[in-house]
Every structure is written in structure tokens, then in C-alpha cells.
Design goal:
With 176 residues, the chain is α+β, with helices and mostly antiparallel strands. The protein has 2 domains: 108 residues, D-Maltodextrin-Binding Protein, domain 2 (3-Layer(aba) Sandwich); 54 residues, no CATH class. It is 24% helix and 27% strand. The protein contains 5 helices and 9 strands, in the order βαβαβββαβαββαβ. The longest helix has 12 residues. The two termini are 26 Å apart.
């Protein structure tokens, strides 16, 4: 059975899953709680407002982290209305649901990712990108080499950052 990743939706993760390979489970949790709960082999975490420095490694023996890069996020708004960023401190939630609600006219504006806003064709205003990192544990009994697999796959995807809605892909080295 393939190892399982749990984290916020992003098309980059889908591409990585196809190349590495691993299974994906999407969640609105941005903190990586599924690793603590033991329900995933690796988790995605998002950090906003720390553009210059990488997120801290979650505490735990054998924990490793790799910052994938900076994902573009935005506020999508209904046609003819300027989107308003009144979402400070909120978890993003489901970016597809948010953009669909704006597109359907049931919400005047919503926070989403640049990739999803582009797919719905809704007007948007860019916000500060969020750092997206993958965290996993290396210990006996866990045979999947997350760090090696992710770094190898990222090398081939870095040039697709614009298409995937990222400011940049491939920030740096694995953190222990």
C-alpha cells in the first residue's frame, strides 16, 4: 500500500503524488494534526506572514520537514466588485468551494488559491503567498523516503510554478 499524505488541497501535491508516488487525502487542517494523530504518513502545513523565514519543524522525534515553496493565494470577488480582504487569521478551508460560491453569486468574495480562482475565471486580488511545507517522521518501520522522493520530483516541477499557481517551487533543503 502506498504511503498517505494529508493536507490542504494544491495541484502541486497532486503532481508530486503521481511522481513519488503516494496517496492524497485533502483536509482543511493547515497544522498537520494528522501526523500527530497517526492517521497519515506525512502532512502538509501552511504558514502565512513569515515570508522570509521557513516554518518551524513540528516537535517530535525523527520529524523532518521540506518547504516546497510559496503558494499564491488571493481574494476572489464577484464580477464588478473589488474583492475585500477581511479574512485575516482565518484558515483557508476548501478553495474550490470558496471560488464556486463567488462564481455562483452566493458570496460576494472569498479567500482561495490563485490556481483555483483562475480555473473559475473569477476576478481576484493577490494576497501574500503562503509557505507550504511537508512534514513526516523518519523512524524504523517507515520505509518511504519522503525527503528523497519529494526533492527529486520538485526538480522537475519547478518550471511549472506559474501554471500551478505558485510564486516559486523548491525553497530549500530538508529541515531536521
Amino acid at each position: 500500500m502506498l504511503p498517505e499524505f494529508a493536507g490542504p488541497y494544491d495541484p502541486l501535491i497532486e503532481e508530486l503524488a503521481a511522481l513519488c508516488p503516494f496517496r492524497c487525502r485533502w483536509t482543511v487542517d493547515e497544522s498537520g494534526a494528522a501526523l500527530d494523530d497517526g492517521t497519515a504518513d506525512a502532512v502538509g502545513i501552511l504558514v502565512r506572514g513569515q515570508r522570509a523565514k521557513p516554518p518551524p519543524v513540528r516537535p517530535g522525534e525523527g520529524r523532518r520537514m521540506l518547504v516546497l515553496g510559496a503558494r499564491r493565494e488571493c481574494i476572489a470577488g464577484a464580477a464588478g466588485k473589488r474583492p475585500v480582504d477581511d479574512f485575516a487569521g482565518e484558515v483557508l478551508g476548501d478553495p474550490w468551494e470558496a471560488a464556486a460560491a463567488v462564481s455562483a453569486g452566493t458570496k460576494p468574495h472569498a479567500r482561495t488559491t490563485r490556481f483555483v480562482a483562475d480555473r473559475f475565471g473569477v476576478p481576484f486580488v493577490d494576497t501574500e503567498p503562503a509557505l507550504y511545507a511537508v512534514v513526516w517522521e523518519e523512524r524504523p518501520g517507515r520505509r518511504f523516503g519522503w525527503g528523497i522522493a519529494l526533492r527529486a520530483a520538485l526538480g522537475g516541477l519547478a518550471s511549472a510554478s506559474e501554471v500551478l499557481g505558485w510564486e516559486y517551487i523548491g525553497m530549500g533543503a530538508e529541515v531536521r
